[in-house]
Amino acid sequence: KKKAFIFDLDGVIVDTAKFHYLAWRNLAKEMNFDFTEEQNELFKGVSRVRSLEILLDLASYDATQEQKDRWLIQKNEEYLKYIKGMDDSEILPDVVRVLDFLEEKNQGIALGSASKNARPILTKLDLLDKFQAIVDGNDVTAAKPDPEVFLKGGEALKIERTDCIVFEDSIAGIQAANSAGMISIGIGEQDVLHEANYVFKDFTEMSNAFLLELIEA
Ligand code: BG6
Ligand code: MG
Hints:
It comes from Dokdonia genika. The protein is an alpha/beta fold. About 40% of the residues lie in helices and about 10% in strands.
């Protein structure tokens, strides 16, 4: 059967989650706030604008709109510096094996990311042509945990939501997939992503036999 496999980008295909964290942490320093990796879990999958709101909240910092706009630009400029030299050696282990297997089985493959930088990153990784549809932060109005980004991915491939499978490293993304009525697969730690239907540490732990079961289910 033809299913749709929808991949998140940051933290699933490439380890850019660490760069987002570093950029937010440096911004937090300007608020005299020590932003921890544990708190960063809440930022994964969340849009840039919403992330700043959460950070200001955590830091109990009252910023003007002008200041917020400046910080959003500053955060993205720093993030872009980190990813500037990125190439396909940064693709996470076995991502290409999974993509190739799904392609060989004629499955739908889409990207569902909150990032507005998704296309340039996929281009750097030389992965753009692996995706039949790309839905990113430029295409949605509601951020994860809202299901919009994944629903649009399924629609673009013309696959019903119950036949869509989502790979996600964030709590917000797992919640988005669940509320879309899709199968959610967490990539990361079981204790963080316990709301997912399945959790794997990374793609090296996910066999082709498991993918085949999803296709045939
Ligand atoms: C998500 C990341 O994929 O994209 C978040 O997990 C990030 O950390 C969000 O804030 C928005 O990304 P960008 O590239 O548009 O700032
Ligand atoms: Mg992610």
